[in-house]
Amino acid sequence: MGILGSSSIELEGGSVERIPFTAYDAGWVVLCIGMAIGSGIVFMPLQMGVKGFWVSAAALAIAYPAVQFLSNLYIRSLSASGQCKDYTGIITEYLGKNWAAVLSIVYFITLTKAMLAYSTTLTHDGASYLQVFGVTHESLAATHWFPLCVIGAMVAIASCGEKVLFRVSGPLIVTKLAIVVFLGLSMMPYWSLKNVNFVAPENVLSFIENVLVSLPFAVFSIVYIQILNPMNVAFRKAESDPAIATYRALRASKFAYIILIVSVLFFAFSFLFSVSSQDAQYAVSQNISALALSARVIPGNTVKILATTLNVLAMLSAFFGAYLGFHDAMKGIVVNVLDRFTARSAHLDRILPMGIAIGSTLLLTAWVWGNISTMALLQWTSPTFGTVSCLIPCYLVWRVPVLRKFRSASVWFVGFTGLMLISTPLFKLLGH
């Protein structure tokens, strides 16, 4: 791998070592960005348009620092384990097999949410584009074979490992990041303060409720935690010194976070100033994305072409990034169960990835046939995300002696954010 730059780390004993930033590091930065720019950025601007400026600003002010804190805490807490393999193995080392079994199921549900959302969008949007461009006369999404073929092909590519994904996803992710920025620029001529709802909710309680309902959209617009453990494990395999491996993982996460903050915020606010609150309400009621809405209400073909391209690229690359974490979660559950009843053989370890790929394909295809709303999925599954991403790392820091060195005020903030995410469905049920 070529060296793109370097930075320094102080190791135990006071020695300082320069750590090169290689193409391998850049590949993980790109995959983190690809994981983040998916369903969140597609739906977050709609929520901003519906809830207004002040609610959106408050949700973003909580969510974006929380994403940085929880990403660092997540990497540090998991990388401190001895073997640092899959998520279940790490939790087993810290808390034992029984806790690992329970938390692995919650982790699996969290990762499954992302895979279900991307699988549904890929299949339905792909079928729609084939119909729009005259390739097919009817939508293939309602058939049984089309979702199976699309998802099977995606899983097959994603199962090839991170180096293959670097080559496949890299150009897609760089292109879609450029489109995000260019779309924001393209909407600038249509900016108007008249489009922005500056009216605050009637009272403090209503304001808090609206912020909590908007929080998952803000978090999911830049979060990439699904890929952090696979990235962390990959660096541990590449580096003999765990401290250097952790440093490289934290550095890649930081670079991805900075790039996402700048690009996603610019796109979101450009959308907010370009599309009226009424149009955003219409999009939510019709279950269409912010990209589809921008192409609908802004004249000209440029935005329409860019929005369509971004939608396709976002789902493709996000699927690849999410599958790494999904595979990690499913493997952890299978291994946890097998280790309770039998000693695993080398042959079983070799065929396990293929079995997981087949099982994943069947599970995701069955879900697509159910045609569940992606936007509703983002809100209803926020408790599992809050538990896995926020509360479990905080609990580990307070429970496990070797992790107590990571205690800080940011841990309290991450825990508070996790509790807010868990409460989101309650306020959704109340009709806010």
From TrEMBL:
<keyword id="KW-0812">Transmembrane</keyword>
<feature type="transmembrane region" description="Helical">
    <location>
        <begin position="99"/>
        <end position="119"/>
    </location>
</feature>
<dbReference type="InterPro" id="IPR018227">
    <property type="entry name" value="Amino_acid_transport_2"/>
</dbReference>
<feature type="transmembrane region" description="Helical">
    <location>
        <begin position="52"/>
        <end position="75"/>
    </location>
</feature>
<feature type="transmembrane region" description="Helical">
    <location>
        <begin position="351"/>
        <end position="370"/>
    </location>
</feature>
<feature type="transmembrane region" description="Helical">
    <location>
        <begin position="139"/>
        <end position="160"/>
    </location>
</feature>
<feature type="transmembrane region" description="Helical">
    <location>
        <begin position="376"/>
        <end position="398"/>
    </location>
</feature>
<dbReference type="GO" id="GO:0003333">
    <property type="term" value="P:amino acid transmembrane transport"/>
</dbReference>
<protein>
    <submittedName>
        <fullName>Inner membrane transport protein YhjV</fullName>
    </submittedName>
</protein>
<keyword id="KW-1133">Transmembrane helix</keyword>
<keyword id="KW-0472">Membrane</keyword>
<feature type="transmembrane region" description="Helical">
    <location>
        <begin position="211"/>
        <end position="235"/>
    </location>
</feature>
<dbReference type="GO" id="GO:0005886">
    <property type="term" value="C:plasma membrane"/>
</dbReference>
<feature type="transmembrane region" description="Helical">
    <location>
        <begin position="172"/>
        <end position="191"/>
    </location>
</feature>
<feature type="transmembrane region" description="Helical">
    <location>
        <begin position="410"/>
        <end position="430"/>
    </location>
</feature>
<feature type="transmembrane region" description="Helical">
    <location>
        <begin position="305"/>
        <end position="326"/>
    </location>
</feature>
<keyword id="KW-0813">Transport</keyword>
<keyword id="KW-1003">Cell membrane</keyword>
<feature type="transmembrane region" description="Helical">
    <location>
        <begin position="26"/>
        <end position="46"/>
    </location>
</feature>
<feature type="transmembrane region" description="Helical">
    <location>
        <begin position="255"/>
        <end position="275"/>
    </location>
</feature>
<keyword id="KW-0997">Cell inner membrane</keyword>
